[in-house]
Design goal:
This protein has 391 residues and is of the alpha/beta class. Helix content is 34%, strand content 19%. It contains 12 helices and 13 strands. Strands 2-1-3-4-5 form a 5-stranded parallel sheet, sandwiched between helices. The chain has a 4-stranded antiparallel sheet with strand order 6-7-11-10, covered by helices on one side. The chain has a 4-stranded antiparallel sheet with strand order 9-8-12-13, with no helix packed on it. It is globular. The termini are far apart.
Length: 391
């Protein structure tokens, strides 16, 4: 039974029997366990990373006088963490353990020495050791890599390991502080939250980044849920342009903190709900849809809409990618594939302006000259065709 469930049950008992003083389920100590990102390396504000800021964030959420132990070690691999966590459990005690580790293992994965499954197994072992001591576990997904990191500059393996962490957390019934989701989709990630000084070969937060991580983990410890369910993996089969009738779209959705609302979670095409097949449970759903030609216009924009049962519910509609439609001549400037060039296309181009192929903000339908970047030339093309329609 999770800490959140126990807290809810205690509250229910208190409401049902107001004459009896229910014991308070206090949290007195939280342990942050991990590598250099937990320790707070490159924290230019010298406040000890996210653990050094966590007590203050918990106090703001009504959890007063919580001691936070920083058990981060520079350069640690998850294999080392499996052995070290026993000593930390013995010496630090604590009520809640935040485990965020695996960044250093990614380099070994890329070099072929270990697999992502091995890293996930190590993390699961850590979680089991903490739970066996009767303590609560919160896993952290990983902070993205720097654009000039020594390896995994596009964060492909870092992202995949973050998805593995979500899966293992569902299997163990633990919460997740979704660091990956919080930072990867922030358009100001590199300017606002990365340490951009010298000597960083992987990618560490700066002081503001650590502050955001503390806020995120404080919500998890205190039981606040203001995050919508997240899309982990998705694909279109066959991959790439164009999109056709009979193509297959699959997606995986995770939710932590509340439970998934099945009727509010589905695949969209060009912003419209489609009849999505759903399998899975309250924390993870697999979504599947076979495209119909009638779903498509001048372009096919694939998205996933998610919703949980929090009060109020957290809702997100994330556009995943946009594809050209086979046999359709698109007017250059039509960035959303609705067969006309208008203000909606200008907004989409503005959001993607300055991005290049492979970046999160890049929209291939807004790359009107197909040069892999969205810039002034694409804006000029849109302006020339503004107001035109192909339907």
């Amino acid at each position: 039974m999770s800490r959140r469930t126990v807290l809810a049950a205690a509250l229910g008992l208190a409401l049902a029997a107001p004459a009896v003083d229910a014991p308070a389920l206090a949290i007195s100590k939280v342990v942050g366990f991990g590598d250099s990102i937990t320790r707070g390396k490159f924290d230019e504000q010298n406040r000890g990373g996210y653990p050094g800021r966590l007590s203050n964030q918990l106090n703001r959420r009504g959890l007063e006088d919580v001691e936070v132990v920083n058990a981060g070690v520079d350069g640690e691999l998850t294999g080392g963490g499996v052995f070290r966590i026993d000593a930390v459990l013995n010496s630090a005690g604590g009520d809640v353990y935040i485990i965020m580790e695996g960044t250093n293992d990614v380099n070994l994965v890329l070099d072929g020495f270990i697999s992502l499954e091995t890293v996930a197994f190590n993390l699961r072992q850590m979680g089991n050791k903490v739970r066996d001591r009767g303590k609560e576990v919160i896993f952290g997904t990983l902070f993205p890599r720097r654009f000039d990191a020594r390896q995994d500059r596009s964060s492909v393996f870092t992202r995949e390991l973050s998805f593995e962490i979500r899966d293992l957390a569902v299997g163990l019934g633990t919460d997740v502080g979704d660091v990956w989701e919080r930072f990867w989709f922030d358009p100001d990630l590199f300017d606002d939250f990365f340490y951009l000084g010298g000597g960083d070969l992987v990618g560490h937060p700066n002081g503001e980044g650590y502050r955001e991580m503390a806020r995120l983990f404080a919500d998890q410890v205190a039981g606040f849920d203001d995050q919508a369910p997240v899309v982990s993996r998705w694909q279109k089969s066959p991959a790439g342009d164009p999109i056709r009738g009979q193509d297959r779209i699959t997606a995986q959705v995770h939710e932590f903190g509340s439970t998934l609302l099945r009727r509010g979670t589905y695949i969209t095409l060009n912003g419209r709900e489609v009849d999505t097949r759903k399998t899975g449970g309250k924390q993870r759903l697999e979504l599947t849809y076979q495209v119909k030609r009638a779903d498509l216009e001048c372009g096919g924009t694939v998205g996933v809409r998610t919703e949980d049962n929090a009060d109020p519910p957290n809702v997100r509609h994330r556009v995943l990618d946009s594809f050209r439609v086979q046999g359709v001549q698109v007017i250059k400037g039509d960035a959303n594939g609705d067969c006309r060039v208008d203000g909606q296309d200008l907004l989409l181009l503005a959001r993607a302006f300055g991005s290049i192929a492979g970046e999160n903000r890049f929209n291939r339908l807004a790359d009107f000259n197909n040069d892999g970047r969205i810039d002034g030339e694409d804006l000029a093309t849109l302006a020339r065709n503004f107001g035109r329609s192909s339907a």
